[in-house]
Amino acid sequence: MTETTPGSAARFPFFNESTTPAGGEGWESMYPYYLVPSEETTEHENAQFWFADTMHWSRGCHPFDSIGAEAVYLGVGTFSTRIFALPVSLGLDVRVVNGYVYISPLGVEDPARIQERVAIFQERAGYYYANWDELYGKWKTKMEGAIDSLRTIEFPRLSEYDPAEVVTEARGRSSAMAVIENYHRLIDEFFSIWQYHFEFLNLGYGGYITFFQFCKQAFPLISEQSISRMVAGVDVLAFRPDDELRKLAALSHELDLNSIITGNSGHEAILAALAETTNGRTWLAAFEEAKDPWFNYFAEYGFTHDQETWASDLSIPLQGISRYAVKIANGEDISRPIERLRDERDEIVDEYRALLTGDEARQFDELLGLARKVFPYIEEHNIYVEHWSHKVFWEKAWDLARFLVDAGFLDTAEDMFYLNRFELDTALFDVVDSWAIGVPARGKKRWQAEIARRRPIVAALQAASAPPAYGIPPQQVTDPFAVMNYGVTTERVQDWLGASDGATDKLNGIPGSLGIVEGPVRVLRSEKDLPLLQPGEILVAPITAPSWAAAFAVATGVITDIGGMMCHAAIVCREYGIPAVVGTGFATARLTTGQRVRIDGKAGTVVVLEPAPETTHATDTAAAVS
Questions:
Q1: 596-600 vs 605-608, strand pairing mode
Q2: Mean pLDDT of 584-611
Q3: Which pLDDT band holds residue 499 (cuts at 50, 70, 90)?
Q4: Given 3-state DSSP classes, what are the helix, strand and coil percentages for the chain, each rounded to the nearest 5?
Q5: Are 539 and 556 in contact (CB under 8 A)?
Q6: How far is it, in rounded angstroms, from Cα 571 to Cα 378?
Q7: Which residue from 330, 310, 325 is spatially nearest to 256, judged by alpha carbons?
Q8: In angstroms, rounded to a whole number, what is the distance separating the alpha carbons of residues 569 and 466?
Q9: What is the pTM of this model?
Q10: Going by C-beta distance under 8 Å and a sequence separation of 6 or more, which residues neighbour residue 617?
């Protein structure tokens, strides 16, 4: 859906031209006012380009879950704009539209201001680059402390009378005060964690982009793939959970347990059967050892309250172990080809470095060294933030929800997530204050009625898909976060405009990982669909999460709607040697399971080789737009 007016370029619809899905009317009231487009901000919003952050919110978000949109983009804005002063990029503005999160890169165009910011950036970023290892070590300590702090948060039950210790220890205040205080701690700690997140991330992208731009200038014909392969083969923490699955699969084969591990029984039956034999108990001990911390890993990105971790749904890691066990039984090597990648990497580096002399060669070495130094953080921060800390955050949020049920304020724990964080603050005070006075909570019926109104609204929003973009396409996208993580480049936006006109024979995207492959596609919309993926199929998804690594042992190629050169799908596919095209914008909407395509991971193209079967196509299209 593009629009052309005299004298203007094609554009996407504006927010005020968007259509609310049937049943979703009134969604605006569920979120904090500053996340929702308004008449007051229309002029600003219509002047911007907005793209959907379906990487982190793959479906319309519950009111409470919008806290992530606040914390994430406060963090990226603060460090981009106010702390490190990225020269040509400010933060990312954020709105929620029909339940989906949209973000807008904000740039700096005034040459004088750019120069001012260059001086600040060079001084501050230079300090971090020069002391990267030491500061990164301190960052890990901060993150571990924040996670430990989250773990201490509790919401004590409101009993008929406060504990006697309030009197005997002369505390002078009710234990019920901890409910409100700990809620504030929970929220504040979450925001702090997202400040820590961006302390290093844009600098990581910046280090890689600087090397990337140097190579493009020094070697005009070099491909993006060749540049990315120069930093491949770096062993990072983010691969450790998948490595644990591989080790457990190898142990299963060694202990002759494959018939149990690869059986069709549910995960509880598999674990029970293993417990009956000596070898099975040996394997289970290794399985238990791997759980903490490596199974504290969301099947998606951990931004919503209803996502499972490997630890909370053991069928997820067991499925990955089973896939690897089958490969081992078939005589396949399941190890990551790290040595091969490093050999190829060094060969490419030597080839291009030989074309340089003197200062250029020294600069190449320095920038390559920096890119390799910062690369681990680009992947590892996900483990600490989106997985380990979010796991504890959502556990505590669920504890709070159960507290409200126990207090008689809510009917079910799920109800709490239909309130945004400010509404929940007032509800908690109502509960504690009413308990203190000895009267029923005054807002119980009010909020239960509002939750009943919102439940079908959220369902309607989640049933609809998110348009990829709104607003006016920029002449040039310069924000490093948008480019490297989301794959939103100037060229990609123009491709989206063309693709949105309905062309179905070809999709253009970011060259994620080298290789050409043909085959049938399997369209997966969430991690719950992963069991459907069959050997030889090309995985198509809005975005892949780090925890999908085992699926890459099955897929022959990967296509995503969103993502850039440094998104997880691109990085992992390069490490595993699987062709990938990311950031296509419309793959899940345009392609249908079973349809044959050819993907070219060097050119960044997806060519449809045959039309979708009529019956299947109709079903998938209905699902995509319902």
A1: antiparallel
A2: 91
A3: low
A4: 55, 10, 35
A5: no
A6: 10
A7: 325
A8: 20
A9: 0.89
A10: 592, 611
pLDDT for res 252:
97
Distance of CA 441 to the CA centre of its chain: 38
Q: Is the CA virtual torsion 340, 345, 348, 353 positive or negative?
A: negative
> b/e string for 201-214 if b means 16 or more Cβ within 10 A?
bbbbbbbbbbbbeb
Paired sense of beta strands 516-523 and 596-600, if any: antiparallel
Distance CA 426, CA 419 (A): 10
Q: What is the DSSP letter of 504?
A: -
pLDDT of residue 236 exceeding 80, the answer is no
Half-sphere exposure of 150 (CA within 13 A, CB side): 26
Mean pLDDT of 582-594: 88
Distance CA 482, CA 107 (A): 11
Q: Where are the domains of the chain?
A: 238-338, 504-625
Task: Report the relative pairing of strands 538-541 and 557-560 from DSSP bridges.
Answer: parallel
Rounded-to-integer distance, Cα 383 and Cα 296, Å: 9
The secondary element (H helix, E strand) that includes residue 489 is none
**Bridge partners of residue 605, in order along the sequence:** 508, 600
Query: Confidence band (pLDDT; 50, 70, 90) for 74?
Result: very high
**CB-based contacts of 103: which residues, under 8 Å, 6+ apart?**
50, 51, 53, 73, 92, 93, 94, 482
Token pair 């630890």 in the structure block, residue = 311
pLDDT at position 556 is 94
What pLDDT does residue 7 have? 36
Under CATH, which number does the domain 504-625 receive? 3.50.30.10
Q: Measured between alpha carbons, how far is 438 from 447 in angstroms, rounded to an integer? A: 20
In this structure, what are the phi and psi dihedrals at residue 143, rounded to the nearest 5 degrees?
-65, -45
Q: Is it the case that residue 9 has pLDDT exceeding 80?
A: no
Return the SS3 of 10.
coil
d(CA 136, CA 377): 8
Pair type for strands 89-97 and 100-107:
antiparallel
Distance in angstroms (rounded) separating the CA atoms of residues 626 and 622: 6
Q: Is there a contact between 470 and 102 (Cβ–Cβ < 8 Å)?
A: yes
pLDDT above 70 coverage of the chain, percent: 94
